[in-house]
Specification:
single chain; about 280 residues; alpha/beta; TIM Barrel; seven-stranded parallel beta sheet; two-stranded parallel ribbon; 9 strands; globular
Amino acid sequence: MKEGYLRKPEWLKIRLGDSEQYGITKQIIERHRLHTICTSGRCPNQGECWSRGTATFMILGEICTRSCKFCNTLTGKPLPPDINEPEKVAESIRLMKLRYAVLTSVDRDDLPDLGCSHWVAVVNKVREYNPGIVVETLIPDFQGRRELIAEIARLAPEVVSHNLETVARLTPLIRSAAKYRRSLDVLEQLGAEGITTKSGLMLGLGETEEELMKTMDDLLAVNCRILTLGQYLQPTSRHYPVKVYIHPDDFERFRAIALEKGFKKVASAPLVRSSYLADEL
């Protein structure tokens, strides 16, 4: 066993997808050559979510311009945005008969508008093809550019999610370009526009409980009222190591504390990810 390696506990066993609906979802995604964070992020809930007929669509390609130490998404020089992607995503959602769609993207620091206009095109096309759908957008920080964040706010998604990922002290160690305060400012600007905001944190990176409590308070201070807490899982040996596996009882305790502090909805368990059961939250 490698020095410093932590064996995964029993509660982190992953359920693989084996239902008919899983196969249908997989076929639709592959037929339209779509990218999902389910696959690129090696999400442990892919089997469960695809079996429910849900997926988190990742737009603007599969190559990110950033190289965060926790993320398994490819890093490098991306291809130009696919002009047909808005229609492909919208049609796939229609075929899946989704009532709640989650959209996310890689960071596109290479584009003049950081991909914002493509975001607008995708959301508008999804709504055109799927009247009455509820849209959640899991957005990058757009380098904190207020005019771009305002464009997202004008789309009026039912929920806008932007993840802090970790506590302030650890942010420079695992996020390659994002800044803790900048992410809070993004959430604050959206909240000021009347948008319901959501954020997610990974636990087990070495944060203290005191730091976690402070981060919850920071999110509440910018009017973020939906929170997800999940166990960080190291994608490969090249990524930031897991420092500790948090027991499910502690995740439940953190959930109770977050609700007591003022969050309206909280999902907190080892395998929770930011878009896990998003429709129920």
